[in-house]
């Protein structure tokens, strides 16, 4: 839990630092430097990580008497310190990547100095090297904003907001979703666009853009209970189905049917660094089917899973997210509905109890007696009928919207969820 919080906090801090604290945009983009950069200003030669790496001679010349301690602490070697097998192009021969090989206490003990002495010496050394590095040619910055990756980020922040109870994470997810809807979505055509940099590009979204953004929006609804995000997710799902779904065999093509420059439309069948669009789409369909009591969405999910039966049968580990979808489709759909006003302390207590439990294949709904419940109740009579009990917020634990008696006590809810 602490590792997750630290990671999300670091990511938010990086954003703040990158923008100087002013006009902080709500989106998330790749702010990693392109690895290859110029070796010298004005010359064509480039090298892997050239901006960041050092020879021992460079460090020793810059630091003088302090070099020995710095070299020990950061693992500097005359022949370079890249691990064996990590440099297939042999570009790091004789080069060093600064990495703390010893703790402050270990370095102090080795040189018979106090930790404060070592800490100050290393800080001064780093400043000297930073001033030298600042004169090197900087690598280019990849700061385009990609819809798919933002969808993944929205999911991460929305889920973390639920688990950790951190409002800043929900705000981050919400701002990112607003940016996508404002800058990368065209209301008239109902199209999502792929990326943004100094304005929206003309590249229409791919299947993974739709799948990841839809997933993020559903997660954001379950974290905020703002019905607008669920409506937006359903709207995007309709577009994704229209442009990418294979009606004949099931599954989602990576490119849309309007793309004339693609001679052969393919379906990604590997959940590698990023899940395949079809895997996430199948899960999205199953979740949305429950929210809207829509058998057509459920059938489309099953058809998508069936399309990848050969892969799951012979190499199941290639598609772990599709296995999640398969597990979802074979189990009894589970719903937890909290009837109450979102600002009520009793409602928040019931939600906090839900968030304490690991509940896969479950959707979380707020029956608020307002617009959200009205929208969900249009096609789902069970949700329409749910209400508070004796004026108190209540939790309904259901399977296929066949529900146990509602409870108003979080301790009793905990018992229900633990069964």
Salient structural properties:
single chain; 419 residues; alpha+beta; two-stranded antiparallel ribbon; 10 strands; 50% helix; 8% strand; globular
Helices and strands in order, then pairings?
Layout: H1 2-18, E1 36-38, E2 46-48, H2 56-63, H3 67-74, H4 104-111, H5 115-133, E3 145-146, H6 147-164, H7 167-183, E4 185-186, E5 191-192, E6 195-196, H8 207-224, H9 227-244, H10 277-292, H11 295-307, H12 309-314, H13 320-330, E7 334-339, H14 345-355, E8 362-367, H15 371-377, H16 381-385, E9 394-399, E10 402-403, H17 410-418
Parallel strand pairs: 7-8
Antiparallel strand pairs: 1-2, 3-6, 4-5, 7-9, 9-10
Structure description:
This protein is an alpha+beta fold and 419 residues long. It is 50% helix and 8% strand. The chain has helices at residues 2-18, 56-63, 67-74, 104-111, 115-133, 147-164, 167-183, 207-224, 227-244, 277-292, 295-307, 309-314, 320-330, 345-355, 371-377, 381-385, 410-418, and strands spanning 36-38, 46-48, 145-146, 185-186, 191-192, 195-196, 334-339, 362-367, 394-399, 402-403. It has a four-stranded mixed sheet, with helices on both faces. It has a two-stranded antiparallel ribbon with strand order 1-2. Strands 3-6 form a two-stranded antiparallel sheet. Helix 2 (56-63) packs across helix 3 (67-74).
Poorly predicted runs: 14-34
Order of helices and strands: HEEHHHHEHHEEEHHHHHHEHEHHEEH
Overall residue-averaged pLDDT value: 88
Distance between the termini: 24 Å
Largest sheet: 4 strands, mixed
Strand order of the largest sheet: 8-7-9-10
Structural class: alpha+beta
Strand content: 5-15%
Shape, per Cα inertia axes: globular
Total DSSP helices: 17
Strands, count: 10
- The proportion of residues forming helix, as a percent range, comes to 40-55%
Rg result = 26 Å
